[in-house]
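One thing: can you check what follows?
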Amino acid sequence: MGSKDRITSTFLHKLQSHYYNIGDRGIRVDVEQIEANKKKVQSLIQTQLDIASKQWGIVVYIGADNNPGKTVDSVNLNSTSGEASLLKKLQALGYHVPKINKKNEEGEYEQKYSTGELALQKMLTENQFNHPTGDPAIRAVLKVRELGKLQNGYLNARFCPRIIQGQKDPQFFFLSTYNVVGTVTLRRGSKRHTFGWGNNAQNFPKHSESSTYVRECLIPREGNIFLMVDQIQAEEWPVSALSQNLVALDELKLGVDRHSRLASKVFGEYIPEKSFPDWDEAKYGLKRYLGKKIKHARNYGMRAKRMSESLAQEGFSVSVPVCTILLDKAAAVDPTVDSIFHKYIHDEITNSRTLTGPYGWSRMFLGMRPNADNSTLFNEAYAWIPQHTVGSNTGFAVDILESYAENSRVEGSIVQEGHDSIVQDIPCSTASILENLERTVKSFDRVIRFSNGIEIQIPIEAELGYDFKDTVSLKSFDAKGVEAALEKLEQKRAKKQSEIAA
């Protein structure tokens, strides 16, 4: 017997209605900051183009409008065919361009030469010309791609203008369209709004250096503040339960930061837990994040080559041999993942071709073939219950909060969902924050029972912010904790304003 909350078609229809409202409600945008950041990003792009141009001795540009002419040796980074394409230029410059698996028109995989992000990350890792700090030109092209995505996907998005009652000038909002069955794990999907506004609201860039150019532009309504909550070490809970790792579950209940602990072990250096006084996001954040990625890769059966490619897609150049070492270290830290969790999934798929999550939702895996390499299928299966559990947990919380607003005949407060997290746009007062925080804690308060009888409750952590960039964690969910966070936020805001004035 699983959890009392159940996934049914009726529930999903109701949830889709909630997510339509969330996507249409949107996130307010600081258009002046957007315009300022567009100029900054364009300048950064030109700087990177100049780096590649100087190293290669040719003009590196973007877009046909910037073509210097046929008499000038050049390459258009947007060109994918012909002699002026990046592929041809790289080969002419002596680079070994890798082949990448891609699906053809028949849906079958075939290897083709590529200058996509993954191929360029591989070339950066290989460092074919032995540059002391890595190939500057390849790094520059990757940076241009990153900034271009930021520019095209977010800074240049169409923002929906709305006249707010009592105001003359419109305010602008980033809208999106959510799909409650956008993934096979019942995590939501998100894309540009039906009428062309905004874009994917789930994956605002966060860990890259350039993410600030988007996140600082996302602001609450007038007089409001963002209340951001997410499930603490979310997928660690179901994986530990299915691995029957009672030590891990005890650590999670005590609030131990297992991502930092794993990072400390695999990198051989001290990485403080995120809640510790000596935590420094700039100093430790990336390695903790990589510890989290290594853990997830190990949990879901990812092999070294795929892990290297996955990290490359996020802008991290980690070679296959290094990934092998990291995965082996993670396996030594927690052997129950292989011996119990993976074995359980393997046996279920082999015997019944079916997995059932704790909320009663089942998925069939009919692609397994005898005497074949079914690793891709099993990797999907390893991820299914943990991701389904966490995503559904968020969905139940969203339903509770949005249903409360509907029953109270007030506008809902949720403006964004990020798989294991939600952001609410609420009045900025201690009383309002406490009231919404209490309601949110209750919305996530559920016992999740797995087929092996182990029960878990995934806790949440919370932050406050006047934008998506500068946020402050709530050390306690009481008036003292809220007031301390508000005071720290005001200090941050004052510092930023003084820097702008200077």
The chain has a mean pLDDT of 91.
